[in-house]
Specification:
Order of helices and strands: HHH
Shape: elongated
Number of helices: 3
Number of domains: 1
Strand content: under 5%
Radius of gyration: 16 Å
Helix content: over 70%
Length: 97
């Protein structure tokens, strides 16, 4: 972050949280593709609605207090929660086949 200038130095925590949340985003994408390939397109749609709702709610709560870090934490919470919820129907679909 220092490469971009002194004013970016304080954003190291935001970058770290976003790096961790990228794992949850990747899990969400991979599990979502499995669900869609097994015919669960409507389940995937509902989980995307869940993702949007959690992201909007946590952003509304955290951004006024934490600004950029609040958005990063909101992303981590939303994608992490969705990946956890998404794992259940994927496991169920995989066991059924």
């Amino acid at each position: 972050m220092l490469v971009f200038g002194e004013e970016y130095r304080a954003g190291w925590m935001t970058l770290a949280v976003l790096a961790v949340s990228s794992v949850a985003v990747a899990m969400n994408n991979a599990l979502g593709q499995i669900l869609v390939s097994k015919g669960g397109i409507w389940s995937r749609f509902l989980l995307d609605v869940f993702l949007s709702a959690v992201l909007a709610l946590t952003s509304w709560i955290l951004i006024p207090q934490l600004r950029d870090l609040g958005m990063a934490v909101s992303s981590l919470i939303a994608y992490g929660a969705t990946a956890l919820v998404l794992s259940w129907p994927v496991v169920h679909c995989m066991r059924a086949t």
